[in-house]
Design goal:
The protein is mainly α. The protein has helices spanning 4-31, 38-64, 69-77, 84-94, 101-105. The chain is built from 5 helices and no strands. Helix 2 runs antiparallel to helix 3. The two termini are 35 Å apart.
């Protein structure tokens, strides 16, 4: 079972992507024919808060699961393009990078020579 920080990371990745969708729709309405700024005013701060939460949770999960510097950097960079957090979360899950903290802390056995 995943630990709490990892579950929060997964939730933040999904929520950040959903807030991107809301912000993109809000921007389309703002700059489109209706010219209404309500969507951007609502989803802008929500997306900003989820963006920061995702970045912090990436750092926590990377430390807990001992991700490489490259994997951590890619996870952080995935916060910028829309929906990339979902892609990264699924990729990390398939590669076993979101396993339990106990399994990540357990040292690999060294073969006897």
């Amino acid at each position: 079972m995943r630990d709490r920080v990892t579950r929060l990371f997964v939730g933040a990745a999904v929520a950040e992507a959903c807030s991107w969708l809301g912000l993109l729709v809000g921007m389309a309405v703002k700059y489109g024919p209706p010219g209404n700024e309500v969507g951007v005013k609502v989803f802008g701060p929500i997306h900003g808060g989820l963006f920061v939460a995702y970045l912090l949770l990436v750092l926590l999960v990377a430390r807990r699961h001992r991700w490489s510097l490259l994997a951590t950097g890619v996870a952080l960079a995935c916060a910028v393009p829309p929906f990339a957090t979902l892609v990264y979360e699924r990729w990390a899950r398939r590669r076993g990078m979101l396993g339990s903290a106990e399994a990540a802390a357990r040292p690999e056995p060294v073969p006897a020579r």
